[in-house]
Amino acid sequence: MSARPPRSARTTAPRGVVVTLVAAVAVVLLALCTAPATGTTRTAPPWPAPTDLETRAEAAGLRNVWGEPLAEHVHTHLTVLDGATPVTVPGDVGHSAREHFAAELHTHDTSGILHVESPTRQTFTLGQFFDEWDVSLGAGHVGGLRGELTVWVDGHRYLGNPRSIELTDRRQVVLAVTTVGEVAHRPAPFDWPPQYR
């Protein structure tokens, strides 16, 4: 058994290597935290409303609450931009009158209004909606749109994980994907219809 070398003789990793290693670990952890639900699409738009409502709701941690009394009823508006071109948020994501299905989070039409209608008060997030819609959302992409993702929440730049944005009443969320180096331009605020004011 050999004796341990004196401290002065031991080698340590250069500071730059340690910093690089820590940064790599942070990137991996961020990727894991922003990972979408299994099966979400990474194709280019348009992205239709899924037809398997129950499966997609479950993937988002939601369930059918059709006909249950509501403890929470709020609306958030979502705008998705491919450069300057709007991407349609489809109607009936998580909703079907014919099937008597309404997840706590759903759409009714193509206005971009996300409806939170829940029998319990809890926090619902943008990531849940994208999982239910079956469209991936991460730090640099929306579905198959890749590049620089600029996010605004209520007119202010948002630098956190877009999946964690809470859906609150009359909140406005804009996701703009541009080519690298292109400046994203925030659209005018959404003009809420009178029934939501």
Quick tags:
seven-stranded mixed sheet; 197 residues; DUF1850 domain-containing protein; globular
Number of domains: 1
The stretches of 5 or more residues where confidence is low (pLDDT under 50) are 7-11, 17-39
Per DSSP, the total helix count is 3
Give the beta-strand count: 12
Shape: globular
User: Strand-and-helix sequence, N→C?
Assistant: HHEEEEEEHEEEEEE
Structural class per helix/strand content? alpha+beta
Organism: Curtobacterium citri
Protein name: DUF1850 domain-containing protein
Question: Could you please describe the fold and organization of this structure?
Answer:
The protein is 17% helix and 24% strand. The chain has one domain. Strands 1, 2, 5, 6, 10, 11 and 12 form a 7-stranded mixed beta sheet that branches. A 3-stranded antiparallel beta sheet has the order 7-8-9. Strands 3-4 form a two-stranded antiparallel ribbon. It is α+β, with helices and mostly antiparallel strands and 197 residues long. The termini are far apart. Mean pLDDT is 86; it is low at 7-11 and 17-39. The chain contains 3 helices and 12 strands. The radius of gyration is 21 Å and the shape is globular. This is DUF1850 domain-containing protein.
